[in-house]
Amino acid sequence: MRLSARNQIPARVTSINAGEAIANVELDANGTRLVASITVEAVRELGLAEGTEVIAVIKASEVILATAD
Amino acid sequence: MRLSARNQIPARVTSINAGEAIANVELDANGTRLVASITVEAVRELGLAEGTEVIAVIKASEVILATAD
Amino acid sequence: MRLSARNQIPARVTSINAGEAIANVELDANGTRLVASITVEAVRELGLAEGTEVIAVIKASEVILATAD
Amino acid sequence: MRLSARNQIPARVTSINAGEAIANVELDANGTRLVASITVEAVRELGLAEGTEVIAVIKASEVILATAD
Amino acid sequence: MRLSARNQIPARVTSINAGEAIANVELDANGTRLVASITVEAVRELGLAEGTEVIAVIKASEVILATAD
Amino acid sequence: MRLSARNQIPARVTSINAGEAIANVELDANGTRLVASITVEAVRELGLAEGTEVIAVIKASEVILATAD
């Protein structure tokens, strides 16, 4: 499967904080901390757990750029 | 300024492909290629050009996770 | 590849309206018209053209619900 | 009310999994399963329940395309 | 039509900068400047022009909060 | 820090409804009610509470326009 999404960052799950509907999945991407908020259903279906290797996929239109003043 | 957005990735602008309304800004984040689609107005106001240091800011709710099957 | 995104709709490309940075890709999903705005780079890399079979992938957090009043 | 959002998919609520802040609303769109994560406040205000007819509204910029390969 | 989206801001169109695929629509919301990037198709179908009264609709999950500091 | 995001609306926190993973933060923006769904981690790190002054930051690509029919 190939995706139109331009941002695909390899990472590893470091922790999961799950509520009833949404879980925050914390990732380590080569030293950079990332967080993905996804449904608890997706956590279960993908079998995500500490140590799982994933790709963080982000559309180019979702990225904001910031500059130091 | 502090942001609620959980994903803040330091990167450097490598190229800008600008249309009339939107520009695709290509970034290098420590070896990972990223792309941000932002308004041409923002490119101009932030003074973005090849080599500019930026932070790619992404809300946790915008991140999709993928696993190899 | 498996995705956390909960919405995955099979569709066929019916037309592409490309600008310099972004292209609007029109889809037919079993009779429902869909439109995806993606980068022109993605159109090229995925080899999208009239008739290409695709999956429209949408995170659950991006879906708004409307009811008739 | 007319909306700029290009994707408007008629569907029916099949189940609601509500947490404290967010609810995942499962939909059937003519045989395709969809999920919308919305606030519990919106579920209450729109009176959503199993069987409610809704429109799933999605901006074109939120749609990722995937191809087999 | 009622929407699950929690943010609905009345505004007036002040200018439109249209490219081939996407247009940036500039709004005045009671003195606050807003910008919406939407498809040129939507601009045409909604008949948007300088002076048109609109509602800017934004999902709660799309809002980032920033604090000074 | 300067942001590419075109929509930056000053507001004040009026209430916070927190679940396990996500909190809905209710805002007053000069009389307009806004809601932001953010991670509970962000609420804690930014020290958000009733009365906190914030900026609601929204990308132009996340804004849908609606017109009265």
Give a quick rundown of the structure.
6 copies of one chain form a homohexamer. Chain A has one helix at 40-46; strands spanning 2-3, 7-18, 22-29, 32-39, 53-58, 64-67.
Written account of the structure:
- Six copies of one chain form a homohexamer.
- Chain A has 69 residues and is mostly beta strands.
- Chain A has one domain (7-59): Beta Barrel (OB fold (Dihydrolipoamide Acetyltransferase, E2P)), CATH 2.40.50.
- In chain A, 10% of the residues lie in helices and 58% in strands.
- Chain A contains one helix and six strands, in the order ββββαββ.
- Chain A has one helix spanning 40-46; strands spanning 2-3, 7-18, 22-29, 32-39, 53-58, 64-67.
- A four-stranded antiparallel β-sheet of chain A has the order 4-3-2-5.
- In chain A, a hairpin with a 3-residue loop joins β2 and β3.
- Chain A is globular.
- Chain A starts with a strand and ends with a strand.
- The model of chain A has no long low-confidence stretch (mean pLDDT 97).
- The A-B interface holds A 3, 5-10, 24-25, 29-30, 32, 34-38, 42, 46-48, 52-68 and B 3, 5-10, 24-25, 29-30, 32, 34-38, 42, 46-48, 52-68.
